[in-house]
Amino acid sequence: MAAALILGAILAPWLYQVGKGLAEVFDDKKGNGPVNFIAKAAGRADFPKFFDRSLMLSAFVLLFPLCSWLRLGKTPGCFRDTPWSLSLPDNVTVRDCGQPLRKNPDGWWQFGTGFFVAAGLLLLSGWLMLQAGCFIWKDALYSSRGVPNKFPMAIDWIAGMKKVLPGALTVTLIEEVLFRGILLGIFLRAMRPAPAIAMLSFLFAFVHFLEPPHGAVVPDPEAANAGFVLLGQIFGRFADPMSMVSRFSILAMVGVVLAYARYRTSSLWLPIGLHLGWAFGMGMFKVATWPVMGLPEAARWLIGMSLLEGLLPLSVIGVTGMLVHAMTRTREPIADYRS
Fold it and tell me: How far apart are CA 15 and CA 42, in angstroms?
């Protein structure tokens, strides 16, 4: 993780210069479709976006030496023959080969149920926040508490769906394969389920918490130390108790629910459905609403600037987790009293 952060901070200004240069070259001439798409996206992006992409690139590059160190792709040996045996105490380790993914005959049903449960509960909580005056419809003149809308605009639901769904699906598939497919599989080969889920969820929250804070500004994005300047602003959020409670705790809870769903079903269908439901619901709510500014500080502990900030959304994730537990509960066989 530390190596990925350092490499990402080093690469970010170089990636920024390449992207902006590409945008200038294709500003007044036509290329093929994908190149034009990348050039236009690079022209619109700011430095934090380039930092985020350089961090992902660094993690992908460093994944290969990590897999080599973990001896993946080779026949699993006993636990004491793995790199984990150097650092884990005996009371949290396992002696088997973990829990491999299996073919799930109920996969599509679990995917659809997870999607509608996650998106439905999240959007229901968003509707309640709208009624409480914490958010306002973009096409409304006033919030439910009479606060005027300073930026009224029409809501284009179809365009919003076309924008949100592809991105949500892409991110969901990548993260579920990486976190719940590969990493949780590795953790379950070395640890008991509870510490494996806890460690992976902390890692999941930590990685997402590394996103640049809203409104982050770097004075000179082309400077060699620009990535490290932004990295300092990111780590500054760990000293903010509200960010830790309202954001980090929700990310960790999301990680626990997704990892638990993968562990209970031994497949990725249910976590993919849940993850996509949350990403889609949050994106569509953002398309249609503005957060209301000027709320009391105490209210911000309960409700943040999005559907994934604050103690109220945390409770929604917790309820979703309880439903996942109920959905995946092992059914007892029906007793045959005739015998």
Answer: 10
Q: Which two tokens stand for residue 20?
A: 């902006």
Which of 262, 242, 244, 163 shows the shortest CA–CA distance to 205?
244
For residue 135, give the nearest of 150, 164, 144 by alpha carbon: 144
CB of 48 within 8 A of CB of 234?
Answer: no
Decide if 309 contacts 303 (C-beta within 8 A). yes
Q: List the end-to-end C-alpha distance of the chain, in Å, as a whole number.
A: 59
Q: Where are any strands of DSSP class E within 187-316?
A: 289-291
Q: 113-161: per-residue pLDDT in tens?
A: 999 999 999 999 999 999 988 899 999 888 888 888 888 889 899 998 9
Residue 210 to residue 208: CA distance in whole angstroms:
5
Q: Which residues pair with 289 in a beta bridge?
A: 137
What six digits make up the tokens of 247? 């954001």
Return the sign of the alpha-carbon dihedral for residues 330, 260, 129, 277.
negative
- Determine how many CB atoms are found less than 10 A away from the CB of residue 267: 21
Cβ atoms 257, 274 nearer than 8 A: yes
Strands (E), 45-188: 135-137
Rg (CA), the chain: 22
Domain boundaries, the chain: 1-74, 88-329
Do residues 192 and 92 touch, judged by C-beta distance below 8 A? yes
Could you tell me what percent of the chain has a pLDDT over 90?
27
pLDDT digits (tens, 9 = 90+) for 168-217: 998 899 889 988 998 888 888 778 889 889 999 998 888 887 777 767 77
